[in-house]
Amino acid sequence: MIRRCFQVAARLGHHRGLLEAxxxxxxxxxxxxxxxxxxxxFSRFLPEKTDLKDYALPNASWCSDMLSLYQEFLxxxxxxxxxxxxxxxxxRDHIQGLKLPSGxxxxxxxxxxxxxxxxxxVEGQGFxxxxxxxxxxxxxxxxxxxxPYLEGPPGFAHGGSLAAMMDETFSKTAFLAGEGxxxxxxxxxxxxxxxxxxxxxxxxEVDKIEDQKLYMSCIAHSRDQQTVYAKSSxxxxxxxxxxxxxx
Length: 247
Description:
Strands 1-3-4-6-7-8-5 form a 7-stranded antiparallel beta sheet, sandwiched between helices. Strands 2-9 form a two-stranded antiparallel ribbon. The chain is 25% helix and 26% strand. It has helices at residues 2-14, 38-45, 64-79, 91-94, 159-178, and strands at 83-85, 98-99, 127-134, 139-146, 180-190, 200-210, 213-221, 228-238, 242-243. It has one domain: Thiol Ester Dehydrase, Chain A, CATH 3.10.129. Strand 7 (213-221) and strand 8 (228-238) form a beta hairpin. The two termini are 24 Å apart. By secondary structure, the protein is α+β, with helices and mostly antiparallel strands. It is built from 5 helices and 9 strands; from the N terminus they run H-H-H-E-H-E-E-E-H-E-E-E-E-E.
């Protein structure tokens, strides 16, 4: 599926004239599969009532910096237009009622599929994070605390864990800002090591949307912004989802 997506993305990037020709991926319709309004899109991603577990809630493993900054952003959801995003164990749960276009659909066991950043179930041992999204400004902030199962150099987080969190924050932001679904490129420049158990703040912005692509940037830093851990940029492909057929 990813290979098919990259093939189509390359075709879109190098042969812009093909945008008007038959293609595997449909061109994005502003009144997309989510409905005719932004509200309907968020209502699917942010269900008011659900029995699904939200993993982006405080637990005993969160450090004091993460807890206090989480509370600060919760206050911003009341007055500044920020939205706390729930984090379920699978992206399937975030897009219930929708599916990939038939050209990219695959059959797989739905029994216990998990998103990579929620694959470690023990609290505090792996990826502890929460994402806040600002829809008007098309930007997000992710609070990330790497656990000991993500260690690279002794006492410090593996660079791949930060890359995974950047990709995850990019993807959720791209999805809500413009139906971005697939990572086309991800470039990272690491600056400093991250101590295991410490807080990383990731500021993500959508820089532009054109040619069915979202161009995004991220800076990962300490809470006091005195230490920059990494800078990255990413490009995501827009893709219109389809309504699932009634069973």
